[in-house]
């Protein structure tokens, strides 16, 4: 069943957001890591974001990197009702404290900065006690004062090696109990010398993941699903056996909750089992449980793919209450529409091997109607890696599977799946002819040419360049002569220039160009001074800019070459680096960087994504780095960029990363052919508005002058692309007063002019 979710969210944590007004987040809240609760709220943590549901009003609010949360991986969350603060723990040892009274945020880096190996700083659990919050970490226990936000002592409690992993703590009969890899350890909570490992007594041997005090009994849990209990804290008997494992054990609102990947068991205050839920019972999809809690006789269950499920203890239905969003945070590719975008989640490894296959559906976002998530079960096509929108009909969309062929959607409905069985002898091919005709068809990027033909690459076959003609017929082109070894050739992006030359990125053969009207039809740009001067033969991406230049991204840097040269058989297809001056020294732009994607905006600037260094925006000629976004200076959720695309109507730049999907509201949209559709927004500019005034629908290099009603000039600019922005100041000196301002616009040659007005209200 399709999931169509409308946007009904309210703002959350906005007051501690950085200056991120240009950014928008499109996060998934489907993979729940941990859950915490009070009597009136439930807060669930996903990989790098939170959401809170008000149990009285039903409002759902979110917090993510746009709001100021770090881009790190969350591992634990805890809500202190006493201090009215929320604690978030991370894989790296980072801790975030949210003051729920004023929604301010404080980032605590003490554990991150500890002189310990970085792989043992993970935060596993928070427990609030009379001596402060005990933080269970992979090195031991840290004591933290939630009121002053200061750390106290650190307890290294291992016997042979002091630094041992502590998964959970609890207090029982005046003692602290810790679940560790060496067993269950305890120490008197008032002992002033808890930093001495000798003060911690081992009461039960084994590798324990859980320890919980509940109704005068102590419960401990092993990863294999065995749960034991004790009345005195030293002698334990079997209580329950979960299958196949134990994921979560906690007490909440008079209940003990035990969770495995496939089962949730809820016990009352007499330790009687009052409800057992299986994964198959609460959701027909193949899900795994991750955590659970109970509030006011309602159970809330975290899952790995379906978000937070909720229902009464005796309910038969447990719908997801997670906020709307994409199916996954690791968006592999996207394609923008005039009012939204499509996103897909298939992928392949460094060798372009799609295994293990990714059994995810696809997502569409519409700014007016919200999210449409089409689950895998409706498609039955794994590892979908690219989206291609028909440029003259955005309701027709093609998606490439790296295993099962080409999908065609019309009006959000899957209408065709093209494979070997229905494209003829000149159509799509499997890797091995003996395979079923629907399997092992490895398709990557597809692109439309100016005649409406759809071109795409089909890996590891003799004729890998395919075209679906506008009339529906298929044709293939043999590439054995141009490829080093067709049996090992794998393709990545494909782009078509204004001459209708097709440029194919390969894993080991550089960049291959093809034009049906040229002689020769195929030419190659590859590594080495005499072969094209690429820094590497693995070409990840290629973009065509507004001067018909190829911007070539490889795993070891960037090259540029004029695409027109392909049509001259006597031309040398030598690509060139961009040489910039930095601190007085000549350097190569993005030297040795693994470039994952390049896109061109309306001003011919380039947005360049990398494997681990974030995003660069460079000028049209590459000589200036206009902006750089990383997880350290922006809401970017990961420095590993999978894909970039730009909405040419709004200038919004979308970044698909391994940690989530975000967008940046740029100001360079595609230029118009004339001035008939110039518009100004917002208009009027109201007192509480803090952004800029945009003048859009411009021709390239249009002259824009803004004057007050008396004719005094307050702003002048030449457009690059189809838009300019005015900060409502008089040449940056002071904010202009309330009134009507005239906007005089003329094309570069002065042949067309138009006049607009904007009202400023202070």
Report on this structure.
Pfam families: PorZ_N_b_propeller, Reg_prop. It comes from Flavobacterium aurantiibacter. This is ABC transporter substrate-binding protein. InterPro entries: PorZ_N, Reg_prop, Secre_tail, WD40/YVTN_repeat-like_dom_sf. It is built from 2 helices and 64 strands. The model is unreliable at 1-18 (pLDDT under 50). With 762 residues, the protein is mainly beta. The chain is globular and about 90 Å long. β15 and β16 form a beta hairpin. The strands form 17 sheets. The protein has a 5-stranded antiparallel β-sheet with strand order 1-33-32-31-30. Strands 2-57-56-55 form a 4-stranded antiparallel β-sheet, with no helix packed on it. Among the domains are: 1-69 and 242-325, no CATH class; 330-348 and 370-478, Methylamine Dehydrogenase, Chain H (7 Propeller), CATH 2.130.10; 679-760, Sandwich (Immunoglobulin-like), CATH 2.60.40.
Write the layout of secondary structure elements.
Layout: E1 3-5, E2 23-26, E3 34-37, E4 41-45, E5 50-54, E6 60-63, E7 74-80, E8 85-90, E9 95-99, E10 104-108, E11 123-129, E12 132-137, E13 141-145, E14 150-155, E15 166-172, E16 175-180, E17 183-188, E18 201-205, E19 208-214, E20 217-222, E21 226-230, E22 237-241, E23 248-252, E24 255-259, E25 263-267, E26 273-278, H1 279-282, E27 289-295, E28 298-303, E29 308-312, E30 333-337, E31 340-344, E32 362-366, E33 370-374, H2 376-379, E34 384-389, E35 396-401, E36 405-410, E37 413-418, E38 443-448, E39 454-458, E40 465-468, E41 474-477, E42 491-496, E43 502-506, E44 511-514, E45 522-525, E46 539-544, E47 549-554, E48 557-562, E49 579-582, E50 585-588, E51 595-600, E52 606-610, E53 615-618, E54 625-629, E55 641-646, E56 652-657, E57 660-665, E58 679-681, E59 693-696, E60 703-707, E61 713-718, E62 723-726, E63 739-746, E64 753-760
Antiparallel strand pairs: 1-33, 2-57, 3-4, 4-5, 5-6, 7-8, 8-9, 9-10, 11-12, 12-13, 13-14, 15-16, 16-17, 17-18, 19-20, 20-21, 21-22, 23-24, 24-25, 25-26, 27-28, 28-29, 30-31, 31-32, 32-33, 34-35, 35-36, 36-37, 38-39, 39-40, 40-41, 42-43, 43-44, 44-45, 46-47, 47-48, 49-50, 51-52, 52-53, 53-54, ...
């Amino acid at each position: 069943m399709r999931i169509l979710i409308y946007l009904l969210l309210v703002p959350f944590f906005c007051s501690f957001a950085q200056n991120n007004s240009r950014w928008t987040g499109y996060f998934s809240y489907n993979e729940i890591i941990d859950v915490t609760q009070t009597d009136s709220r439930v807060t669930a943590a996903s990989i790098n974001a939170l959401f809170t549901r008000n149990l009285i009003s039903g409002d759902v609010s979110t917090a993510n990197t746009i709001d100021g949360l770090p881009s790190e991986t969350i591992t634990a969350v805890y809500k202190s009702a006493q201090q009215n603060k929320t604690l978030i723990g991370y894989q790296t040892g980072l801790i975030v404290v949210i003051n729920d009274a004023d929604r301010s945020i404080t980032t605590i880096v003490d554990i991150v900065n500890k002189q310990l190996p970085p792989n043992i700083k993970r935060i596993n659990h928070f427990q609030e006690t009379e001596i402060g919050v005990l933080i269970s970490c992979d090195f031991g226990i840290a004591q933290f004062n939630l009121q002053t936000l200061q750390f106290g002592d650190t307890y290294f409690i291992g016997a042979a090696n002091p630094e041992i992993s502590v998964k959970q703590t609890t207090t029982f009969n005046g003692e602290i109990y810790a679940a560790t890899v060496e067993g269950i350890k305890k120490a008197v909570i008032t002992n002033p010398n808890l930093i001495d490992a000798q003060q911690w007594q081992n009461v039960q041997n084994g590798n324990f993941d859980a320890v919980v005090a509940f109704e005068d009994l102590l419960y401990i849990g092993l990863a294999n699903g065995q749960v034991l209990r004790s009345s005195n804290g030293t002698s334990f008997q079997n209580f329950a056996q979960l299958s196949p494992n134990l994921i979560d054990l906690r007490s909440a609102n008079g209940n003990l909750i035990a969770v495995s990947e496939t089962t949730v068991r809820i016990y009352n205050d007499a330790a009687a089992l009052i409800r057992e839920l299986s994964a198959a019972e609460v959701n027909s999809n193949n899900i795994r449980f991750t955590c659970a809690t109970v509030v006011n006789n309602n159970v809330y269950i975290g899952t790995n793919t379906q978000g937070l499920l909720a229902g009464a203890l005796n309910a038969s239905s447990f719908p997801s209450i997670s906020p709307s969003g994409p199916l996954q945070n690791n968006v592999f590719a996207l394609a923008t529409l005039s009012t939204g975008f499509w996103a897909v989640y298939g992928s392949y490894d460094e060798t372009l091997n799609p295994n293990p296959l990714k059994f995810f559906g696809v997502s569409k976002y519409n700014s007016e109607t919200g999210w449409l998530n089409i689950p895998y079960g409706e498609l039955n096509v794994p590892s979908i890696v690219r989206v291609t929108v028909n440029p003259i009909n955005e309701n027709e969309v093609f998606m490439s599977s790296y295993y099962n062929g080409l999908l065609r959607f019309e009006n959000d409905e899957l209408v065709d799946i093209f494979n070997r069985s229905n494209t003829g002898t000149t159509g799509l091919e499997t890797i091995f002819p003996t395979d079923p005709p629907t399997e092992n068809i490895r398709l990557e990027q597809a692109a439309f040419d100016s005649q409406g033909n759809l071109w795409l690459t089909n890996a590891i076959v003799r004729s890998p360049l395919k075209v679906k003609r506008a009339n529906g017929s298929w044709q293939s082109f043999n590439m054995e002569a141009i490829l080093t070894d067709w049996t090992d050739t794998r393709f990545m992006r494909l782009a078509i220039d204004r001459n209708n030359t097709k440029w194919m990125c390969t894993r080991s053969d550089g960049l291959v160009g093809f034009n049906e009207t040229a002689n020769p039809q195929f030419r190659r740009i590859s590594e080495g001074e005499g072969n094209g001067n690429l820094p590497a033969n693995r070409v990840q991406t290629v973009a065509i800019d507004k001067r018909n230049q190829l911007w070539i991204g490889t795993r070891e840097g960037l090259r540029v070459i004029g695409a027109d040269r392909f049509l001259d058989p006597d031309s040398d297809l030598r690509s060139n680096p961009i040489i910039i001056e930095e601190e007085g020294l000549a350097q190569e732009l993005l030297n040795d960087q693994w470039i994952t994607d390049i896109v061109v905006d309306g001003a011919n600037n380039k947005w360049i994504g990398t494997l681990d260094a974030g995003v660069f925006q460079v000028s049209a000629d590459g000589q200036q780095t206009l902006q750089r976004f990383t997880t350290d200076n922006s809401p970017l959720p990961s420095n590993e960029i999978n894909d970039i695309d730009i909405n040419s109507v709004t200038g919004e730049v979308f970044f698909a990363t391994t940690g989530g999907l975000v967008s940046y509201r740029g100001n360079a949209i595609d230029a118009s052919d004339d001035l008939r559709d110039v518009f100004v927004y917002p208009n009027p500019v109201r007192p509480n508005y803090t952004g800029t005034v945009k003048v859009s629908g411009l021709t390239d290099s249009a002259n824009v002058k803004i004057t007050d009603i008396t004719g005094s000039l307050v702003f002048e600019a030449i457009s690059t692309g189809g838009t300019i922005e005015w900060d409502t100041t008089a040449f940056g000196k002071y904010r202009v007063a309330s009134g009507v301002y005239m906007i005089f616009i003329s094309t570069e040659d002065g042949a067309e002019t138009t006049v607009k007005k904007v009202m400023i209200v202070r």
